[in-house]
Amino acid sequence: MSDTLPPCPECASAYSYQMDALLICPECGHEWPAETPGTAPEDVGGIIRDSVGNALADGDTVTVIKDLKLKGSSSVIKVGTKVRGIRLVPGDHDIDCKIPGVGQIGLKSQFVKKTAD
After folding, report:
1. Could you tell me how far CA 57 lies from the centroid of its own chain?
2. Which NCBIfam families does UniProt cross-reference here (predicted)?
């Protein structure tokens, strides 16, 4: 690994430090994985994968793999909920979708599994 660490991708702070396999920003608290040789994404955006490692694409159908509580609401997205026509977006919540009964929402790819239509 080089002597210089990359700046924080959230706030661009130059004071990031490494703890085990993570890089941490002391200013905003953001944590992200430290890239080791051979694990860098193939392109700038990287490939978004579901919870079992399948590559996701715009328009795919996914199934929620665990109950998800919605912040600021008493609603829950139940395990097994099918979400059709997802759209991939950059960021922490990398799936943009519309769930019947809930509405427009952002999901994390680690909580979904790609399904056949």
Report:
1. 14
2. phnA (TIGR00686)
Residue type, 115: T
**SS3 sequence, 37-80?**
CCCCCCCCCCCCECCCCCECCCCCEEEECCCEECCCCCCEECCC
- Residue 73, token pair as written in the block: 């609401």
Question: Could you give all domains of the chain from N- to C-terminal order, each with its CATH number?
Answer: 1-39 (2.20.25.10), 61-114 (2.30.30.40)
* Spatial distance between the Cα atoms of 75 and 86, rounded to a whole number of angstroms: 21
Q: Which two tokens stand for residue 29?
A: 């608290």
pTM of the predicted structure, to 2 decimals: 0.59
Q: H-helix or E-strand containing 31?
A: strand 31-33
Report how far residue 5's alpha carbon sits from residue 37's, in angstroms, rounded to the nearest whole number.
Answer: 14
For 59-107, write each residue's pLDDT tens digit. Answer: 999 999 999 998 888 889 999 999 999 999 888 889 999 998 888 999 9
